[in-house]
Design a protein that fits this description.
With 721 residues, this protein is an alpha+beta fold. The protein is 30% helix and 23% strand.
C-alpha cells in the first residue's frame, strides 16, 4: 500500500503544515517579538518591543507571554531574553503579560496559550532576536554618545563598554537614548558557545516568593468588599437546575445571596465557610436529563463498538496488507481510562461586573480566550473585559478551559460587589473536563526478529474538534495520533488510523502529556510484547529498529548503562523500558519495580536519560522530568474516573489517589548535552512512566497488562500470564 497522506500534530505545530493550516483558518502566526508597543506604555522607559522594559534606574522588566504553572517557564523565558540582551540577571523582574494576541500570541498557535510543552520551543528564536535587537539599540546609543563605531563596543551584565577608552554606561543611563535608536532589521544572535546564562543551573525567579508566601495565585486574589461563592454544578453531565428551596440557606449567618444558573447553583457568603454551609442547606431538584443512566460500562461498550470500524488514515507507508500476511502475527488492544486533572490549586475565579466593565482575577492557560468568553457571558465588548493573570497552582491542561471563569462572570453579574467563586475539590473532580478514554489496537508481524508490518488504530475523543475546530481535518484529531504517526522505529510497512468516537455526555479535554499519553503507552507496551515474542531483550529489540534515529538510540544506550539493565534481580522484581520522541525531545526511561505476593507494587528506582537539545535551565529540565514521571506513574497506579448514573463516582484524594512521598521511587535524570534547538520537557516524563512501569511488571511477573490503571488482582503470585 502506498502512502495516502501523513498528518501529525508535530508536523502541524512545528512545520510547514502549521503555516498552511493557520493561514487557511485566519489564525495568522504572530511575529510579535519585535513588534512596537503602544507609546503610552513606554514613556520614560526603553521598550524596544513587547517583552523588554528598562527604565533610567536600570530596572529591567521582562514581560512573560506564557504562564507560570510550576514548569519554570518564567525563569527559562527570562534567561533566553536576558542572554541576548546581555542583561544583569540580578536586576531582572518578571511581569505577567496582559491578554493580547497581537503582541503575545504563541508563535506556534497564533493564540496566547500555554501548553503542549511548547513555551521554549515556540519562543526560542523570536525572543532571542528580541533580546539581541534591544542590545544592539543600547550599544548604538552608547556609541553615538561616545562618537565611536558600535562594533567597537561590547555589552555585558547590563552595561555597554568601549574597551579602547575604558568608558562604560549602564543600561539605565542609556534607556532614553536607546528608545530613539532605529532597531536593526536583521540582528545576529549569539553563537551558543558564547552563552553565559543559557545552559546554567539558574535559580528560579519564582521560588523566593513561593517560599516566603508572597506569591499570588488566582485563589489569593482579595478585593475590597469581595464575597466568596461556593458552587454546585448539576451532578449529571448535561443536566439542568429544576427547583431550588433556599429557605434554610438564607437563614445561615454570613450567607448573602443564592444565585441560580442554568446548570448550577451558587451561594455567596461573607466567607467560604458560610458559602459552603449555605450550599449544603439548599434543597435542589435537578432535571438530570438524558444522561442520568450512563455508566462506565456504557462508555466502554460504545468505544469498543466504534473501534471496530475502519478509521481515517493518518499515515500509511509501504504495503501493510502484504507485510501483515507474512511472519509471526501479533495483535493487542490497550485501553486507557478517563482521568481528572486535580490541580493543587482548586478551580477558582474572582470577578467584578458593572454595567460597562468586567474585571477578572484568575490563573489561566488561555488569557485571550478567557477574555473573549467572559465578554460573551457579561454581554460586554471584549475591550471592556480586563484579565489579571496570576500564577497557576498547577494546570495540567485543566486551565485550557474557560468554564470556571464563565460561571463566575454569570454569578458576579447578579450582585454589585466582586465575587470569588471557588470550586471545592469535590466539584473540581466531579465536573472536570477529563482525559478521554482511548482504545488503541496494534497489529504487527515479525520477520527475522524485527517488526515487518505495524498497523495501529486509535479510537477516542477528538479534543481538538471541540477546542480548535479548524485543526480537526479529514476526520483526524492530530493530537490523538501524534506519537502514533511519529513512532521512532524503522517500520518499513506502517499504517495508522484514527476513529473519532466521543463518549456519551462526558466532557473531554487536554491532560498533561496530551495525545502522546495514549500512543506512547500502546506503542511501548506492544514493543515489549513483540520483543518477548521474538525472543529478544527489550532494549536490544528496540535498538535494532532505531538505526535511523541516532538521538533516540543514544539515550536508549545511556539509560541501559545507567539503570544497570541486564544485571540480575530478585524474584518478582523487573525492569521495564520506554523510549519516546515527544515534543522535540528524546527520552529513554527504565523503571525498576517489585511486585509482592498480593500484587502490590513497590517502585524501587527510575532512570531517565533525556536529550532535549539545548537545556536552557538543566535544573528545570530535571525537575520537570521528575515531576512528570511521578504524575504519570500516579495515573498508572491509581488514576481512573468512573461513571455511574451519569455521575462521576470519585470525589477527592481519598478515592482519586495521588502517589505519596513514601511511595515515590529514587529518580535519576541524566540530561544530555546537545547543540540542537530546545525541545519541550513538561510532558515527556508523564508519558514515559506508565509504559516503563507496565513493562517492569511484565518482566517481573510475566503478566502483560493492557489496561490502566494497573489491576493488582491480576498480579498476585501464582497467576499465569
Amino acid at each position: 500500500m502506498n502512502a495516502h497522506h501523513s498528518v501529525s500534530r508535530r508536523a502541524l505545530l512545528t512545520g510547514g503544515l502549521a503555516t498552511g493550516f493557520v493561514l487557511a483558518f485566519h489564525l495568522p502566526l504572530r511575529a510579535a517579538a519585535n513588534e512596537p508597543v503602544q507609546k503610552d506604555a513606554t514613556d520614560g522607559k526603553f521598550a524596544p518591543n513587547a517583552f523588554i522594559r528598562i527604565d533610567e534606574t536600570g530596572r529591567t522588566v521582562l514581560m512573560m507571554p506564557q504562564v507560570e504553572m510550576g514548569q519554570g517557564t518564567y525563569t527559562s523565558i527570562s534567561a533566553v531574553l536576558a542572554e541576548e540582551l546581555d542583561a544583569d540577571w540580578s536586576k531582572i523582574e518578571v511581569q505577567h503579560a496582559p491578554p493580547n494576541d497581537k503582541l503575545y500570541a504563541n508563535p506556534t498557535f497564533g493564540l496566547q496559550v500555554t501548553g503542549n510543552s511548547n513555551s521554549i520551543r515556540a519562543w526560542w528564536m523570536p525572543l532571542r532576536k528580541a533580546g539581541a535587537t534591544a542590545r544592539a539599540m543600547l550599544v548604538q546609543a552608547a556609541a553615538a554618545q561616545w562618537g565611536v563605531e558600535p562594533a567597537s563596543c561590547t555589552a555585558s551584565k547590563g552595561e555597554v563598554a568601549h574597551a579602547a577608552s575604558g568608558r562604560k554606561l549602564g543600561y539605565g543611563e542609556l534607556a532614553l537614548a536607546a528608545q530613539g535608536q532605529t532597531p536593526p532589521k536583521d540582528v545576529a544572535v549569539k553563537d551558543p558557545k558564547d552563552f553565559v546564562l543559557i545552559g546554567q543551573p539558574l535559580k528560579r525567579l519564582d521560588t523566593p516568593d513561593k517560599v516566603n508566601g508572597k506569591a499570588l495565585y488566582g485563589i489569593d486574589a482579595i478585593l475590597p468588599d469581595m464575597k466568596i461563592a461556593a458552587i454546585a454544578n448539576c451532578p449529571v453531565f448535561g443536566g439542568k437546575v429544576g427547583k431550588v428551596d433556599d429557605s434554610a440557606a438564607t437563614k445561615i449567618a454570613g450567607v448573602r445571596k443564592v444565585v441560580v444558573l442554568d446548570d448550577a447553583v451558587a451561594v455567596i457568603g461573607d466567607h467560604m465557610w458560610a458559602a459552603k454551609q449555605g450550599l449544603a442547606a439548599l434543597k435542589i431538584e435537578w432535571n438530570e436529563g438524558a444522561n442520568a443512566k450512563i455508566s462506565t460500562k456504557d462508555v466502554w461498550d460504545d468505544l469498543r463498538k466504534a473501534s471496530e470500524k475502519d478509521g481515517a488514515i493518518a499515515k500509511s507507508t509501504g504495503d501493510i496488507a502484504k507485510a501483515l500476511a507474512t511472519g509471526d502475527k501479533f495483535e493487542a488492544t490497550f485501553e486507557l481510562p478517563f482521568l481528572a486533572h486535580a490541580s493543587m490549586e482548586p478551580i477558582n475565579a474572582t470577578v467584578r461586573v458593572t454595567k460597562d466593565s468586567c474585571e477578572i482575577w484568575t490563573g489561566t492557560q488561555i488569557m485571550t480566550r478567557v477574555q473573549s468568553e467572559a465578554a460573551k457571558a457579561a454581554g460586554l465588548p471584549i475591550d471592556k473585559v480586563i484579565v489579571n493573570q496570576h500564577l497557576l497552582g498547577g494546570g495540567f491542561g485543566r486551565k485550557l478551559e474557560p468554564d470556571m471563569v464563565i460561571a463566575a462572570v454569570k454569578i458576579a453579574k447578579q450582585v454589585d460587589y466582586p465575587v470569588k467563586v471557588i470550586w471545592t475539590r469535590e466539584e473540581d473532580i466531579q465536573h472536570d473536563v477529563y482525559r478521554p478514554v482511548y482504545r488503541d489496537q496494534v497489529t504487527a508481524s515479525l520477520v527475522d526478529g524485527k517488526v515487518a508490518g505495524w498497523k495501529y488504530k486509535v479510537a477516542g475523543s477528538a479534543v481538538l474538534a471541540r477546542w480548535l475546530p479548524p485543526a480537526f481535518q479529514k476526520g483526524i484529531d492530530i493530537d490523538a495520533i501524534d506519537a502514533a504517526v511519529d513512532a521512532p522505529y524503522d517500520f518499513a510497512n506502517f499504517h495508522v488510523e484514527y476513529v473519532h468516537a466521543e463518549p456519551p455526555a462526558v466532557p473531554t479535554g487536554f491532560w498533561r502529556g496530551v495525545g502522546p499519553n495514549n500512543n506512547v503507552f500502546a506503542v511501548e507496551c506492544a514493543m515489549d510484547e513483540l520483543a518477548r515474542k521474538a525472543g529478544k531483550d527489550p532494549i536490544e529489540f528496540r535498538k535494532s529498529m532505531l538505526t535511523k534515529n541516532p538521538r533516540m538510540l543514544a539515550v536508549l544506550n545511556q539509560v541501559a548503562e545507567k539503570s544497570g539493565w541486564g544485571q540480575p534481580l530478585p524474584a518478582r522484581v523487573g525492569r521495564g523500558v520506554c523510549v519516546q520522541p515527544s515534543f522535540a525531545s528524546f527520552i529513554a526511561t527504565v523503571v525498576e519495580a517489585e511486585i509482592d505476593d498480593i500484587g502490590e507494587i513497590v517502585l524501587r528506582r527510575v532512570t531517565s536519560v533525556v536529550d532535549t537539545g539545548i537545556a536552557v535551565n538543566p535544573d528545570t529540565v530535571k525537575a520537570q522530568i521528575e515531576g512528570g514521571l511521578i504524575f504519570g506513574l500516579t495515573a498508572a497506579l491509581y488514576g481512573e474516573i468512573t461513571i455511574e448514573k451519569g455521575r462521576v463516582q470519585q470525589s477527592n484524594f481519598h478515592d482519586y489517589r495521588m502517589m505519596r512521598i513514601n511511595e515515590t521511587p529514587k529518580i535519576e535524570v541524566i540530561v544530555v548535552k546537545s547543540g540542537e534547538a530546545p525541545g519541550g520537557i513538561g510532558e515527556a516524563g508523564v508519558n514515559a512512566g506508565p509504559p516503563a512501569l507496565r513493562n517492569a511488571i511484565y518482566a517481573a511477573t510475566g503478566v502483560a497488562l493492557r489496561r490502566l490503571p494497573i489491576d493488582r488482582k491480576l498480579l498476585a503470585a501464582g497467576r499465569k500470564a
